[in-house]
Amino acid sequence: MQATNWLGEPFASKNSKIFLDRKVAKRLLYAAQEAFPYEYSALLIGKGATITDFLSMPISADKHAFSWDGPAFFKAIGDIRKRHLQWLGVLHTHPHTAPIPSARDVAGWHYPSLSYWIVSLALDVPDWRVYQWQDGGFVGRDYTLTDATEVADTSSADSASSPKNS
Ligand SMILES: [Zn+2]
């Protein structure tokens, strides 16, 4: 249990919402737009059901997606563990298409407990979607933007010493 503490379960309780820090969302969007017209992807990290930071992942031009077994991925996991945070999801962009998981997205997803975010940059207004893996497919979920101050308050109240979802 302790060994996999870094692997989060943001949808652990039924009908629970997932939270995304507003500033993190802004920074993600900026990074995503910088990468345009190429695909951008990141690991989303935080605690419980609240995403408070992210780690950008390198994308190779020929592969379209980052590799799950690459050195950048393992370095990111090491970073998450060192900071006593949890890996809560991944985000990638669809620069030219709708924010619907592709066949390749479905085939390549190996972490069903995590949240799966797609941001479409195909239209003028970026379209954010978050999915949960359920019964062999992606199901759309709601998310709530939150402010860093709230996040800091709640996380200091029940710090790392009291494990959640146990
Ligand atoms: Zn995709």
Automatic annotation (TrEMBL):
Record flagged with keyword Transcription regulation: no
Keywords, comma-separated and alphabetical: Hydrolase, Metal-binding, Metalloprotease, Protease, Zinc
Keyword Zinc: yes
One GO term (biological process): proteolysis
UniProt cross-references to Pfam families, sorted A to Z: Prok-JAB (PF14464)
Domain JAB, residue spans: 23-129
UniProt GO molecular function: metalloexopeptidase activity; zinc ion binding
CDD domains, alphabetized: MPN_like (cd08070)
Name of the featured protein: M67 family peptidase
